[in-house]
Amino acid sequence: MKMNRLYGFHEELVRKRDSTMWRKYQKVFNQLSLCARIGQNILCMHGGISQNCTSWESFHALKKPHTPKTCDDGLSVDLMWADPTQDKCSAFAMNTVSF
Length: 99
Known about the structure:
Elements: H1 2-6, H2 9-16, H3 19-31, E1 35-38, E2 42-45, H4 57-60, H5 75-81, E3 82-84, E4 92-94
Antiparallel strand pairs: 1-2, 3-4
């Protein structure tokens, strides 16, 4: 919810529909998986691979964030929002979107 408000999704839905529609979207988003593994070779996520990911077991221990505080850092946030930096081989950074 925090990121959707911060980056304009809330305002867009309220402008086009109403805040009830935004809450319905949030309920759906809260049920989606953070990432998925297809077979043994493909890992899918919205954001990027985190420096907090050390092995496949990192994903098994992963808990979805449910409070604003737990949405500020960690593996789950990186899976949703991290983008590779210019140095593609060494680090990742938070998404920097501007409107």
